[in-house]
Design brief:
Layout (H helix, E strand, L loop, with lengths): L1 E5 L8 H15 L4 E5 L3 H9 L4 E3 L10 H8 L3 E5 L5 H9 L4 E4 L11 E4 L13 E4 L26 E4 L8 H11 L4 E5 L6 H7 L4 E5 L4 H5 L4 E4 L4 H7 L4 E5 L5 H10 L2 E6 L14 H11 L4 H10 L2
Parallel strand pairs: 1-2, 1-4, 2-3, 4-5, 5-6, 6-7, 8-9, 8-11, 9-10, 11-12, 12-13
Helix pairs in contact: 1-11, 5-6
Length: about 325
């Protein structure tokens, strides 16, 4: 049994959970058994149930709660994976004491130093030092769904009204979506707005929803939605890379401080424009006519879909 320990909530967002689900499917395809250990967050548990994952509700957000050793013994865990962003050494020490390998993902916590393998696909700050005995760093280790391949295509038209999609994560912790909608409405740019399972800002959303926008929640396939549009407005997590893999240019808004280097890196690749942190947004970006064709080609050239294979091979080597 392999353990996937994930923190997922309105405050943390659901991106870690979505990424871990992708990894779990890929590991299962190689014959591995996987169990999630996740905090008690109703939308996250409903997601895991919907897609048939095995899971245990656990106090993963409480580093002082000594529960891991019992779970390892009870479930026969032989490798432990953390996808929490800030894993403390108090928790990882208990995993190491059990004598099993430890993997972390884009982890900025003190526990990352204990990792036998640290996959840091979203680490783009050249001055940042990351822990881990083996460090896999860079976009070539992104856990992107290989099913995106059928949606890979270059865009040719300029960004224009009616061809935007707004998707700011499973939770949109800071309620940025309504603000973006107001900016798009000001510049007469209709858009499809996709909100995730933990979105809670519906009052603010209704205040700006009119004929300019089509609002959807829990869409069956975000890639299919991407395929209908020319420009995406996203946060600075995995979503803009998923869009880039489809050839869809992005306007990236950083919801968290650690997403700022991601947004800048995407802009440096040529497949995105970075609008800044949500607290200090460059609103002029949303009025620009973007070179969509040029951005689309740059995105397709830079982002491939082999990251899952690379990471699964690294994990299984442990």
């Amino acid at each position: 049994m392999l353990a996937l320990c994930v923190e997922s909530s309105h405050a943390r967002g659901m991106g870690h959970l979505f990424r871990a689900c992708r990894l779990a499917r890929a590991l299962a395809e190689t014959g591995e058994q996987v169990r999630f250990y996740v905090n008690d967050h109703a939308p996250s548990l409903e997601w895991l149930q919907r897609y048939g994952f095995h899971f245990s509700v656990s106090p993963v957000e409480m580093p002082d709660a000594d529960w891991e050793a019992a779970a390892i013994a009870r479930d026969g865990v032989r490798l432990w994976i953390y996808d929490k962003h800030f894993t403390e050494a108090r928790a990882t020490a208990r995993i190491k004491a059990a004598g099993i390998p430890l993997v972390t993902f884009d982890d900025r916590g003190s526990g990352a130093a204990d990792a036998d393998l640290h996959v840091a696909a979203l680490a783009f700050d050249p001055h940042e030092t990351l822990g881990g005995r083996v460090l896999l760093r860079g976009e070539q280790y992104l856990l992107l769904d290989e099913g995106l391949a059928r949606f890979r295509r270059p865009r040719a038209a300029a960004g224009r009204p009616g061809r935007y999609i707004v998707t700011l994560g499973g939770a949109d912790t800071y309620g940025v979506t309504p603000r973006i909608m107001r900016l798009l409405a000001r510049h007469k740019r209709p858009a499809t707005v996709v909100v995730g399972p933990a979105f809670s800002h519906f009052d603010a959303l209704r205040a700006v929803t009119d004929g300019t926008f089509e609002v959807k929640q829990n869409v069956p396939s975000l890639a299919e939605e991407f395929d209908r549009h020319e420009v995406a407005i996203t946060g600075g997590g995995m979503t803009p890379f998923e869009a880039a893999a489809c050839g869809l240019p992005c306007i990236v808004v950083a919801n968290e401080d650690f997403e700022v280097p991601v947004g800048r890196a995407l802009a440096g690749f040529g497949g995105a424009v970075f609008a800044g942190h949500h607290a200090d947004l460059d609103e002029s970006v949303f009025a620009r006519e973007l070179p969509v064709g040029e951005m689309s080609r740059a995105a397709l050239q830079r982002i491939d879909l082999d990251g899952v294979r690379r990471v699964v091979e690294a994990v299984r080597s442990l």
